[in-house]
Amino acid sequence: MPGGRWGAYLQDADVVRLLTRLEVTLGPVGLTAFAKTVMTPYMRERARARFANEGDDAVGQWMPLQEATWNFREEQGFPPDHPINKRTGRLEAYITGGGVGVTPTPDGALLTFPDQPPTGETARKLETAQYGKNDPYTPSRPVLGISEVDVAFAVTALADFIERGGAS
Asked: Is the peptide bond before 136 cis (omega within 30 degrees of 0)?
């Protein structure tokens, strides 16, 4: 019956074109492009906002610094209580400005954010931020995480990407 949403029956060639477009868009090349052009900037911006706001819906609000930490920070020439998780800037730079790995896989693409494991002092700072530590007691103030908001963004953005046929 003609009409409805499609306005007319789809022809076999139309179906083939649609399925081919979906296959390309949802294949390794298309999903790699989606991860690089859409998800990478989004994740970087979320991480920047997390540092600026001292937490978010993905990781929770960061616990305030203790007074002993205020004194230590002041002795080092930094503001006593804010910004949290930012003294030298290396941890924030590692997360917000470091590399992002996007690797095509047989099933799609793998996004690794940040792409390289941290080393040295940055590795210790990341571990403390994510998990806290017992001696001296430091509560966790996670800098990496995703939330339902992030998943909803990814799903909506992917639907838009598919509708555009993968074009950015």
From this structure: yes
In eight-state DSSP terms, residue 141 is -
Per-residue pLDDT of 59-100, as tens digits, reads 999 999 888 888 888 888 888 888 888 888 899 999 999 888
CA pair distance 142, 145, nearest whole angstrom: 7
CB half-sphere exposure, 123, CA atoms < 13 A: 5
Q: What are the φ/ψ torsions at residue 60 (nearest 5 degrees)?
A: 85, 165
DSSP conformational letter for 76? T
Report pTM: 0.81
Residue type, 24: V
Q: Which residues contact 146 (CB under 8 A, 6 or more apart)?
A: 58
Q: Report yes or no: 111 and 101 within 8 Å, Cβ to Cβ.
A: yes
Contact call for residues 166 and 34 (beta carbons, < 8 A): yes
Distance between CA 135 and CA 82 in Å, rounded?
Answer: 22
Q: Is the peptide bond before 114 cis (omega within 30 degrees of 0)?
A: yes
Name the helix (H) or strand (E) containing 43. helix 40-53
Q: If we measure between CA atoms, which residue out of 159, 168, 152 comes closest to residue 22?
A: 159
- Cβ atoms 118, 94 nearer than 8 A: yes
